[in-house]
Amino acid sequence: MDFYCDQVVPGITPVDIVAETPEVLAFHHTRPYWPLHIVVIPKRHISSLAALEEGEMAIVQQMLAVAADICREVTAKEGGCRLSTNCGDHQTTKHLHFYIHSGSRLRDEHGNSIPQDNQP
Ligand SMILES: [Zn+2]
């Protein structure tokens, strides 16, 4: 299952778009893991950073350009943020995506809620 190619890019699952270019889409995660959780994806299928193929680096650069703008805005508003990507067993959806997030984690990697009073 490739949620991004199957649902998000064709517009079947509506998303709250943060930024869009001809090649890249950034939107608020539909089930956020952090209070602020933005997803940046290429509109065409790329499987992961670890499995990048010939010619795909140009799209990654475009993703980073979009991410940089978002990071700048989030940092100005929230004070800071983190950018991450998952590969291999850590990657649930096998379509390259960057996460930009800030705040205390709300859910673990299995999607289970993390009690907020247990956070430092
Ligand atoms: Zn895909």
From TrEMBL:
Q: Which Pfam families match?
A: HIT (PF01230)
Active site at 97
Query: Recorded GO terms, molecular function?
Result: catalytic activity
Q: Which residues form the HIT domain?
A: 4-111
Matching PANTHER family: HISTIDINE TRIAD HIT PROTEIN
**Protein name, UniProt field:** HIT domain-containing protein
Task: Give the taxonomic lineage as stored in the record.
Answer: Bacteria, Pseudomonadati, Verrucomicrobiota, Verrucomicrobiia, Verrucomicrobiales
